[in-house]
Amino acid sequence: MKIGIGSDHAGFELKGKLKEHLEAKGYEVVDYGTHSLDSVDYPDYGKAVANAILAEEVEKGVLICGTGVGISISANKVKGIRACVCSEPYSAKMSVRHNNAQIIAVGARVVGEDLAKLIVDEFLAEEFEGGRHQRRIDKMLEIEK
Ligand code: RB5
């Protein structure tokens, strides 16, 4: 599976660790930046990964900022994208099973490296259940119109 990853400066170090972790597990990871600790604006990276998913450059996305909040809100502004900020694995798992989320976001100032890896692993291991959950996603898509 091809994964797009992106962060702002606050998530830069954790992005590198998650990228390494995912590559070790056999995922192909495309890095949409940022590429240094210099201060940048998280919407640019949320947007880049969200657009990469819509363009089918990558299948899923991982975003990191200080809290995971700003970068997930930014990704969710792209129509058709469901990005969830999670601080524990259960929500990460259910965000795929029930919400068919394409992007997981984590806060580098909220969760430690090992917890972030667990969250991302749960997210990538799951599949959408469909059925009644698709009806609810269709309603979300209606709201976007
Ligand atoms: C950057 O200082 C910080 O505001 C950003 O990483 C993020 O936490 C915003 O939601």
Automatic annotation (TrEMBL):
It is an enzyme of class 5 (isomerase). SUPFAM superfamilies: Ribose/Galactose isomerase RpiB/AlsB. One of its GO terms (molecular function) is ribose-5-phosphate isomerase activity. Keywords: Isomerase. The keyword Isomerase applies. D-ribulose 5-phosphate binds at D8, H9, G66, T67, G68, V69, G70, N99, R109, R132, R136. Its EC number is 5.3.1.6. The keyword Disulfide bond does not apply. The active site is at C65 (proton acceptor), H98 (proton donor). One of its GO terms (biological process) is carbohydrate metabolic process. InterPro entries: RpiB, RpiB_LacA_LacB, RpiB_LacA_LacB_sf, SPI_LacAB/RpiB. Belongs to the LacAB/RpiB family. This is Ribose 5-phosphate isomerase B.
